[in-house]
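Hey team,

Sharing the AB hydrolase-1 domain-containing protein run so nobody has to redo it. Sequence (236 residues) first:
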Amino acid sequence: MNTQKLNQQKNKAIVLVHGGFVDGSGWAGVYSMLKKKGYNVLIVQNPTKSLADDVAVTKSAIDSLNSEVVLVGHSYGGVVITEAGTHPKVSDLVYITAFAPDQGESVSSLIANPPPGAPVPPILPPKDGYLFLDRTKFAASFAADVEPGLASFMADSQVPWGLDALSGAVSQPAWKTKPSYYLVATEDKMIPPPAQRAMAGRAKAQVTEAPGSHAIYVSKPEVVAELIQRAADARA
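Structure output:
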């Protein structure tokens, strides 16, 4: 038992940050796998109303930990970790089919000019300052490889995504000073894989590719957990 506790103390903690339209519950499979391996894992429940609020909530979670932190972001969560990752406790960044903006960039600017033929996410017109995906098209665009019942639940339990979060611009990209890892989901219909590869290359991230939808963290948690573990064990 003492040896096990010592091993746990040596491991970096892992903080998981969800993206837009969803909450932290989607990390359940990844969380369970990492916990079984002895990692201290924390899931951030960002309100996704504004980037500033989400960065503050994420930094508060990091502050609560007494070790180095591997900061993981999915989709819009990549913007959050890019801004919050400058926190001195953060040792590594892991992007899961996520946005990795440069200084001054936001989700809005990154999606402003999609390449010809790229799939267009079925985002409905904003209502009261918030966005939703068309529920009838949610599974096909966001979660095509997720079990149908769960994909339907995800569509019907969407979290409103604030326009202020969408337009929130990064001030100082953490990937410029922190080691980064990136998982490209090759069947993503929300963020085109070529855009993922371009952002990963710019961040000089170690890239892994796997077949999967935008919700690969739900459908293939073992692939995601393996990449996070690689980051957590690096330079331990």
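The chain has a mean pLDDT of 94.

Ping me if you want the raw files.
A.
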